[in-house]
Amino acid sequence: MLKNIAKENNLCRFKFKTQVQLEKHYQLIQKRLRTAENNLNQYKQQPIHESIDINTLSTIMTAFVRQGQHKLCAEFERKKLILQFDAIDHRLIKTFYNLNPTDDQIRSAKIIWQAAQSKLYAEEQLAILKQRIYTKRLPSSLNILDHSIDNVEYLLKQSIINRDKSATLSFRRLKTIAQFKYDIMTLEMTTVEEIIRSHVNIIADEKKKLIDSAGGQVPIPKSLVQIMNAIAARQSNMVQRSQCILKKKLSVFDDAPMTINMAGAVGANIVQSFKTGLTNNCISYSDQRAKDFFTAIENVLRRLYTTPLRSKLLARIQYESRLIRSTRHHIKKSNIIIRPTDKSKVLHLGSVHDYHRKALQYMSETNAYNEITSGINPCQNHLQMVLTLIDPMLKNKDINLQLWKQYMRPNAATIELAHLYFIPKPHKIGTPLRPIVSSIKAAATGVSHFLDILLRPMFNQVTKATTFINGIDFVRQIENYRNSGRFLPTTLFVTFDITNLYTMIPRHGAIAALQNLSKHADNRRIHGMTIDTITRLARLVLDTNCFVYNNKYYQQIRGGAMGSPFTMTLANVYMWEWEQTLIEYQRSHMKCMVGKLY
């Protein structure tokens, strides 16, 4: 192939060194090697300190040299691969011209190749921009924005401003600048993406011109097909070559701080939590919008983890970290418990001994808990109880397999026994405690969640006429009652409260109320499940209400566990059954408004 033709179509070839340049470079390397050997020999003549282990030193030096050799070998293989792509490129150009293309076809081929090369370069820029944002390694040219766009940094140095307030304002300033940098990078990415689309359109237009040059012949002439294949072959080789070069350029980001891995782990946990939430709400997370959202979450976390902290902000973080550790030490030393209160947004400080005394008093008064004296953790036993009950149901198709996998199946590798803790109620005399059984990873928690999802909508529908949803709904019902002419000066408001409702509901009565609720279902089935199946699942949840407290195992023998999702629905069903007689009497004799607000 003529040199001028090769030069005209040379879009992407490296400028490799000539033979003379390579020989000079080889001589330089040999000179450096002799110098290093001389320095090593001189070092050997010096007395060796006793603390130096020659074997260890030799091992370290060998490893160091081999590491350098590995890098050189990898770089050599990469350049050899690039040279192979260039040789193939030269051959593909020659193949194209051997087909004797017309001037128009040559012009179209050059436009396609040039647009393809420009597109690949733009894609390379886009990939690097994304990687910079991904690892929070923005171009150094953006650092000028840290000190040149405002006067806030100078103003914050004035001693008149409180130190904490100054740190807060400085953080807001840095956050604003960081967001501006991110917006600039995003705008640049959008611009590059538009350039890529423009080159794609140019390539498509030129290929269409080549096809149209056949004058509508069907099939397309063989000579034109060969020319288009030759153009596409070189285009494909250019793509492979560009990918090899891009891989090298992106490798400079591989030595990012180790905190990226931490961000990845945290991001994975957060993304998994989102996926679980979407699954629980019957929403697919395979949608492209969901994937983009998850990617954005991971990128945000990585940016946060890799953002270098300013010295002042770092000093404040270290100070607050020491303060937190000191506070924890004093709390532990003073036997103090800090808990959020039951019905307010404040924290309550109480004595460990006082909490323990009230907890034992609560257990004694309710008589709802039995200590498991064997000292054996019942966690694995609960797992067997769940599987023993569910397996026959699955075989008999009493339970849908998909529902079992999605909602109820426990993870044998992560199940844990629930633990009991208490929330103080300072709005009541003596600050009593509300018991909470944390059973997030308990064996039957999935079944409890499923029953709650299954029964609560039906219960809300059945009791809609006698239930106040919230305070606003209560006011509206009162207005309707007034408009009907029944709101008189003699009208009485009667309210009552049930102490320890969840703990004290009788189980047999609650199960019976649950069975009566099924009368309002079609064919005594709720979403295809019989009331007998639902009842057995409910008993399973109640029978596995065990927990650990103060290094002892307990089983709840009355009511349901506060903290179990199904307990609230079961308690509401029991109260609905209990109040039916009262409601009917009031409606027939007093014609008054009846409602409840839990």
TrEMBL record:
PROSITE patterns: RT_POL. Residues 404-598 form the Reverse transcriptase domain. InterPro entries: RT_dom. Residues 19-46 form a coiled coil. Keywords: Coiled coil. The keyword Transmembrane helix does not apply. This is Reverse transcriptase domain-containing protein. The lineage of its organism: Eukaryota, Metazoa, Spiralia, Gnathifera, Rotifera.
